[in-house]
Amino acid sequence: MALSSSAKDETSHERTSFQRSSLHISIIAALVAVTLAALPVWWSATTIVRRPLPVDAVRAWHAQGACPLRTAWTIHMDGEHIDASTCTAVYERLLHRQGAAPTDDLCIDWAVVGSRGSEHRVCDIGVSNTTEVVRVPVHTHGSAMVPEVLAYLAPLLGAPTREDARPIEYAPRVRLVFSLMQEDASEGRAIAQWGLTEAFHASASVHPSLAPLHRLIEAVRPIHDIVLETQVQWYAPLEFSPTTMYNEQEGQISVLSMDDISVFINSPQWSLESYGTSAMDERTLHFILFVPRPHHAPLYLQKDHEIIRQPAWLVPQWGGVVVWNRYLDGSVMAEDVSLDELRVPMQLYTKQLLALLGLEYDGVLEQDALLDLAVRSLQWRRALQLARESVDTLTSIVRLVHKIPNLGVDQDVQRAFTHALDDLHAAKALSLPGRAHLDQLLSLVTSAQSHASQAFFDPSMLEMLYFPNEHKYAVYTPLFGPLLLPLLTAMAREWKYARRHRPLSLQEQGEAPTSDLPPSTKTPDQSTRRGASRTTTQSSSSVAPSSSTTQPTKPIPAARPALSAKEARKKLFGKPISSLLHTSSPKDKGHLAHTSRYPGLHKSVKLPTLHTNRRSPPPKRLKLPTKEKKPVRELGSDEELESEPEPEPEPEIDYENEGFL
User: Fold this and answer.
1) CA dist 384 to 71, 106, 419, Å?
2) Do 99 and 243 have their domain in common?
3) Tally of domains within the chain
4) Can you give the residue range of the structural domain that contains 105?
5) Which of 194, 513, 634, 656 is deepest in the core (most CB within 10 A)?
6) What is the phi-psi region of residue 142: left when phi exceeds 0, alpha when psi lies from -120 to 50, beta otherwise?
7) Are residues 213 and 338 in the same domain?
8) Nearest CA to 559 among 539, 520, 533?
């Protein structure tokens, strides 16, 4: 009983060991279970959602080419000398203007009407239903009437804004920042403030100096929402020194060259930031009024060997600069700037703003009718441009989704895509007459372009657009390779271990029947257990009385107790390695260093060849005969030379009996 309890303790200790195969299998099974449980989460996280898009509708819009929207305008000529030939000539010139280039096409269907007075109509050519009417007064006669009409229609028939690099890109909101920059106010002629801010926000009346700018701002309200800001800076140094010249009338002057203009704006040291937001639907235009320091005043501009005394230039899509030589005396007192002094700079700023908005035409500032025609023309151009951009953006989305299979289309992209198409359909079906038609049309196409850009630049589109399918393997291989390789290796090792040690474990636990094994493979443990069972039966039969006489049997020795794993390893590996070699038969002696009998399995196991750790002797080198040279001595006799002892030979190295390395 004591032996059996100790064996159970050893067995239980062995089962709780971390080296048990069952514990390894449990760990591997847990890892596999966690991996399988995480597969649905990984699948849902990496699944690409591709919602359907109205591809056919986009293709229909793209098939319309450069004219996704069309409108009809009537040119109504009024003059005493208007006749049918004049109407025909003007109509042909308008049609010829339409076919100049596909992208320059205004997409306008024309109707030309000529009349003499308010009641007498001379001609009516072209379409019947129109939304816009342009009245052209004709004061000439004969062959000069057609050029006069075309000159009046120049804001409508002029070059598109895309060919001019000066106008800004369209934005519903435009912020105008007027900055009074003083090169160095500490040297004198300082300006403390100017009344431009209060004048801009005054609603009662407009100062005459600001009248042209105010008129232009109010005229472009249907296209842009104008916001005004002002600022004053007392120190705005230049990055260069102007060229000094001498003039007979003014003496020493400073001159700017055309190369100096390109580096005039000192952005690192000038604080030109606006207080407004940096939204995508807003553009900021800067207008700088530069006051030079006394040492550089007056500051002029030299262009083509000509001195310009009022320097002013335009910076494309950024703003404008005006150099203001205010003082000619040496006043050092700080003074405020009156609005009367700003009359010339404001006129220059108005012309610069016309060019930046795409409204620079002759006579626009002088005639309200021409300004209104220029604004209506710009409004239609902007609407047509936004419609083209919307169709191009939607077409690009369809092409990308068709070309890239893993490009996702989620619900937000689908919603923005659909809203853009709805806005385009509403803009095309719009049939309001007059100015209301252009206002509503521009609002719809602006919304369409905004939704199309929102769909194209959606984060779900961008993250897959810049992550093609080829990068998937480059990401998954370093991620899952180090995780799966140890797991698969451990599973293969446990499978090999279970396959190799299963017969031994079955024999030790007595789970396998003896009849299933051949006679040569029965282990001593089985015979021992059989003998132990017979001994137990005999002892029990000798104690209990029996009615029959039993024959005496030879007592069988008791079975030895089972060894623990620690004792078995000590018994197996504690002996010299030569004791494990099997030398049962003379024919196996030649394989002494190659086979061994493993206890319990009764089979031969290959062992590696014993290594003696002895270094092999190097090959012998052949020595060539050399002639010994006797040293020449100046002093001494022959007897001393003969009596000199010979040198002892060097001891030979016994490589065979040399010790371990």
Assistant:
1) 10, 8, 18
2) no
3) 2
4) 71-162
5) 194
6) left
7) yes
8) 533
